[in-house]
Write a structure and sequence with these properties.
Elements: H1 4-7, E1 11-14, E2 17-21, E3 28-33, E4 38-41, H2 47-61, E5 67-69, H3 75-78, E6 88-92, H4 95-101, H5 103-112, H6 117-125, E7 132-134, E8 137-141, E9 146-151, E10 161-165, E11 171-179, H7 195-206, E12 211-216, H8 222-236
Parallel strand pairs: 4-5, 5-6, 6-7, 11-12
Antiparallel strand pairs: 1-2, 2-3, 3-4, 8-9, 9-10, 10-11
Helix pairs in contact: 5-6, 7-8
Length: 240
């Protein structure tokens, strides 16, 4: 990958692995580049954001993204997906049906959090549902770059997907199972009784030396994830 990623506002996490903290909602978008494929982790909150991301990634790599992994079904992580025409989309089992069933809820949630009404409606009208569902673990080959998709939830939602990129260091895209910029948000679709166990699975995947990338906020280490796991257990009265 070229050195201009940083100049364009991206943070380098490992060779061929970067992420960007998006404006407005501070959601993370990740990119993993292989010889044959480019994986994008989450796609932003609007079609315009998705289109800008696709254009920027294409310019910086000289190739179009080919795959998308959606970490969970909240508006700021999924509504840009339709801008990535031709990409294969991956999500946790059940995400496709939820996005079909809860389209209006997703639209209203986006508007309530500040997305322009017309932009939210447009994004939901063109909403892309996953083509591939992950019930356990699935390894993608991006061309000399394996990436593991792991259904580690439920927790923050019923459909939490983590993305593990092996290497030195290993990089784990956590979605909103982990948040650094504020306390983890437990909305009406959270399953708090299972959230600590989801973080246990996340830590088992990444290990002690991995780089953990929250859905919002700065990159953290395993100790941070473990501390947040314990805080959630105490907050929701989960033993163990």
């Amino acid at each position: 990958m070229e050195t201009c990623w940083e100049e364009a506002g991206w943070e380098r996490l490992a060779p061929d692995v970067v992420r960007r903290r998006m404006p407005e909602w501070d959601e993370t978008v990740g990119v993993v580049v292989g010889r044959t494929d480019i994986l994008v982790v989450d796609t932003g909150a609007t079609l315009r954001a998705g289109a800008e991301l696709r254009s920027l990634i294409t310019r910086l790599t000289g190739r179009r993204p080919t795959r998308i992994a959606l970490t969970h079904p909240h508006f700021d992580h999924v509504l840009g997906s339709a801008a990535f025409a031709g990409c294969e989309v991956y999500g946790a089992t059940g995400l496709d049906e939820l996005l079909r069933r809860e389209r209006e809820t997703l639209r209203e949630d986006a508007i309530r959090h500040g997305v322009d009404r017309d932009a939210a409606t447009e994004a939901v009208d063109h909403l892309v549902r996953p083509h591939h569902l992950v019930s356990g673990e699935l390894t993608l080959d991006l061309g000399g770059r394996p990436v593991l998709l792991a259904n580690v939830g439920p927790g923050h939602t019923a459909h939490d997907l983590a993305v593990l990129v092996p290497g030195r260091p290993e990089v784990v895209f956590c979605g909103d199972l982990v948040e650094e910029s504020g306390p983890p948000q437990a909305g009406p679709d959270a399953i708090p009784g299972h959230w600590p166990a989801a973080l246990d699975r996340l830590l088992a995947l990444g290990g002690a030396d991995a780089v953990y990338v929250p859905g919002h906020g700065s990159v953290v280490d395993a100790a941070f994830v473990r501390a947040q796991r314990d805080e959630l257990a105490a907050r929701f009265g989960v033993s163990g």
